[in-house]
Structures are given as C-alpha cells and as structure tokens.
Amino acid sequence: MKIGEVAEQTGLAVSNIRFYEKKGLLTPDRKEESKYREFSKEDVERLKKIVVLRKAGISIESIGLLLEEKVSLQETMEKQETELQEQMKQLEGAVALCNVLKSEDSLKDLNADRYLNFMEEEEKKGNRFSEAAELVEDLSYYTGEVFFPFNMTLSACSSWKFYPVVRTLATILYWLGIPALFVCVFIMNGFKIQSVAGLIGFIFAMGLWLFHLITFFCSKRRSGIE
C-alpha cells in the first residue's frame, strides 16, 4: 500500500511516517519501476507500535533499540517510568512556583533571590523544579546524528560508553573549532585569502557549516512532528 493509505490507517501525517523512515525505524520496499514506497501490513503494524511507544514518551533511539531487540520492553518501560516520575516531581514544583509568582505585579519588581531561596527550601523537602534546557545539549545530539549515522548509532555507538564524550568533543571541535581556525588563518594571512583554491575551500567549508547550523535550528522548529 502507498504512504497515503498508511497515513489514513494510522491517523499519522505523511511527514511523520517519512520522519520515522528517515530515522531507520521503517524500511518499506520501493518498486524499481516507480521508486514509490510500498508498505506491507507488517510495516503498518510496526508503525502502530512506534506510535504507542512515542505516546509513552520513548525516544526515537530507544525505539530503534527495541525494534532491533537490543533491549527489552520491560527494561525500557521501567527506565521511562522512572524518568516520567521525576518529570512529574519537576512539574509539581513548577506549579507551586507559578502559584507564588502570581502574587507579583511585574517581572521588573520580582525579587529573584527570594524565589531562589524558596526553591532551595522546597528541594530540601523533596520537591523538584524543571531543569533549564541547554541549547548545547540539543546541538550535541544533532552533531552526533551528523557525524554518526542513525543506524550506526543504534548498532554500535549507543552501547559504547565513550560515545557521549566523543559526541561532545565533536560538537566543540565542529561548531567552535572551524570558525576559530578560519579566524586564525585570516589573521595570519593579513585578512586575505591567498589563492582561488583557498577561496573555494573557505566557501565550501563555511557553507557546509552554515548549512548544518540552519538545519539544526529548522529541525528544532519542526520538533513538533517528531
């Protein structure tokens, strides 16, 4: 069946299905004569299982490991349950913080130290608050996908204990190292490019760098379909 029929049967948007295919969770056959995807009943059932797992908040990477039978369903659910319980504690703390912040007239007059002390006291009681999301963490995961293809990540890197360290180093070297390198080269050459080959190399390298940067921010804006 075609992708439109699959979307109708599962209630998913075509973009969602293509996203899961891109991530390696679906591998429908393609007819040589037309190059169109041809989904089987097994593909549809697999997709429905993916939807169930996503509704439970399971990450794409963890779903891939489950489908490849590299981890058990029980183990994954226990880990997810623990994470969700921690998130619930954070939400309870955030709700409590919102309730006390409602008494303030404006952000300008807000005494931040008072509320930081309030959170510290609440955390001593066992309450939790939302962690500040760091852009660099998202960028690190994106860099991992750029340099380590998803299927490779599932089959090798995900079980490699040094993978997060390597991913972090790749993030620092790629996003900070390349601009720093070109700045140093420009300074050493008196802010001039010495040859046509050098100019072409510079344009290619910086173009690729900017392409990945733009793709990263676009992927964050489209994160709703993931």
Short description:
The protein is mostly helical. It has helices spanning 3-10, 14-22, 41-55, 60-67, 73-101, 112-124, 135-147, 150-155, 163-188, 196-221, and strands at 29-30, 37-38.
Structural notes for this entry:
By secondary structure, the protein is mainly alpha-helical. The protein folds into 3 domains: 3-67, Multidrug-efflux Transporter Regulator, Chain: A, Domain 2 (Orthogonal Bundle), CATH 1.10.1660; 73-124, no CATH class; 135-225, no CATH class. The protein has helices spanning 3-10, 14-22, 41-55, 60-67, 73-101, 112-124, 135-147, 150-155, 163-188, 196-221; strands at residues 29-30, 37-38. The protein has a two-stranded antiparallel sheet. α7 packs across α9 and α9 (163-188) packs across α10. The chain is flat. The two termini are 23 Å apart. Mean pLDDT is 77; it is low at 150-156 and 222-226.
| First-to-last CA distance | 23 Å
Q: DSSP strand (E) fraction?
A: under 5%
Shape: flat
User: How many separate domains?
Assistant: 3
Helix and strand content put the structural class at mainly alpha
The major β-sheet equals: 2 strands, antiparallel
Q: Assign a percent range to the helix content.
A: 55-70%
Total helical elements: 10
Tally of strands: 2
State mean pLDDT (0 to 100 scale): 77
Low-confidence stretches: 150-156, 222-226
What Rg do the Cα atoms give? 23 Å
Order of helices and strands: HHEEHHHHHHHH
Q: Please state how the strands of the largest beta sheet are arranged side by side.
A: 1-2
